[in-house]
């Protein structure tokens, strides 16, 4: 897998970062590498997108976690949780584009940390709204 | 990235396969590698999941495509389409689990081809319903 760009965000500390976008995540820039200019050319303000990232600070050896919503619950397999610690730590973030400036796309409420590699961007389908 | 399993499906031909699950995709098995047994232990019938795959038959050099919905429209950057041909061909499939049999999980309406590597499974969040 090849990064297509990276996240620029005020979030730098995993322990302080919100776990989901609706928990107070700040706006952030998606900074595309110039070789992907054609692939991102139709991104525009107002669109809802799915941003796929590679959570490079994750622990890939983790197979089960105590659910964050209730730490007293028993350990749960990571494929039934959104834990960033998992065998292939792909982050999936739904976000709304608020501005485009050259190779930089600003999105509202992204919970990814500063410097996180971006691996794909997809439009939201009707069935996912 | 390390496959966590693979898809078993009657779909073997990319050109004949439906492009989205609601276009007549058949049921399929997610076959997990035994080392991920703990990670998939809480998957159960009735749950809605997001299956992330690696579309290993994709053309990773493609940056723009004619939209399938209207081939007369001009070429569109792949980050604004769901084309499988894209720099990092990660497939994102929403599916409902209909049965679990050991390391095998049966899902309804999956448009992935037989043998496609699975790289992650996540629960659907409330905001994605």
TrEMBL record, chains A, B:
<keyword id="KW-0489">Methyltransferase</keyword>
<dbReference type="GO" id="GO:0032259">
    <property type="term" value="P:methylation"/>
</dbReference>
<dbReference type="InterPro" id="IPR023370">
    <property type="entry name" value="TrmO-like_N"/>
</dbReference>
<keyword id="KW-0949">S-adenosyl-L-methionine</keyword>
<dbReference type="Pfam" id="PF01980">
    <property type="entry name" value="TrmO_N"/>
</dbReference>
<feature type="region of interest" description="Disordered">
    <location>
        <begin position="66"/>
        <end position="87"/>
    </location>
</feature>
<dbReference type="GO" id="GO:0008168">
    <property type="term" value="F:methyltransferase activity"/>
</dbReference>
<feature type="domain" description="TsaA-like">
    <location>
        <begin position="1"/>
        <end position="129"/>
    </location>
</feature>
<dbReference type="InterPro" id="IPR036414">
    <property type="entry name" value="YaeB_N_sf"/>
</dbReference>
<keyword id="KW-0808">Transferase</keyword>
<protein>
    <submittedName>
        <fullName>tRNA (N6-threonylcarbamoyladenosine(37)-N6)-methyltransferase TrmO</fullName>
    </submittedName>
</protein>
<dbReference type="InterPro" id="IPR040372">
    <property type="entry name" value="YaeB-like"/>
</dbReference>
<dbReference type="InterPro" id="IPR023368">
    <property type="entry name" value="UPF0066_cons_site"/>
</dbReference>
<dbReference type="InterPro" id="IPR036413">
    <property type="entry name" value="YaeB-like_sf"/>
</dbReference>
<feature type="region of interest" description="Disordered">
    <location>
        <begin position="1"/>
        <end position="24"/>
    </location>
</feature>
<comment type="similarity">
    <text>Belongs to the tRNA methyltransferase O family.</text>
</comment>
